[in-house]
Amino acid sequence: MSTEKLTSFKFNGETLAVCFVETLTVKDGVECDVYSFVDDESKDLAIVTVKTGYKTPLQRILLGEKTVEGFYNGVGVLTVTDIKDQQKQYSYEPTDTGETEVMIGQTMQ
């Protein structure tokens, strides 16, 4: 799906160097480009590409200090469900650059 690979990524207002690791096929219509941050093993980056009409699998955050979700390109909806089964939906348009923090125990899709 995605052919152009990143060499840098803007995070918290800072442009950081990244190195492409691999592309994984998550399921039909969903691919994930995995990156490492150059000189910083404390975080990682996954750019997930979803074809129209498909969606990512439901994912539960199990551990980690911080999980940030956002839309890099395109349109879509992120649904986050908390541990009390309360859902919140975040809609993204092509011009949006917002990010959403997902906490341990929450699910997202």
Secondary structure layout plus pairing:
Layout: E1 8-11, E2 14-27, E3 30-37, E4 40-50, E5 59-60, E6 67-70, E7 76-81, E8 87-92, E9 99-102, E10 107-108
Antiparallel strand pairs: 1-2, 2-3, 3-4, 5-10, 6-9, 7-8, 7-10
Order of helices and strands: EEEEEEEEEE
- Please give the share of residues in helix: under 10%
Count the helices. How many? 0
- In whole angstroms, the N-to-C terminal distance is 19 Å
Q: How is the largest sheet built, in terms of strand order? A: 1-2-3-4
Question: Major sheet: size, sense and barrel closure?
Answer: 4 strands, antiparallel
> Which structural class do the helices and strands define?
mainly beta
| Quaternary structure classification | single chain
Tally the beta strands. 10
Morphology call:
globular
The overall pLDDT, averaged over residues, is 91
Strand content: over 45%
How many whole angstroms does the radius of gyration measure?
A: 14 Å
Would you identify the regions where 5 or more consecutive residues have pLDDT less than 50?
none
Number of spatially distinct domains: 2
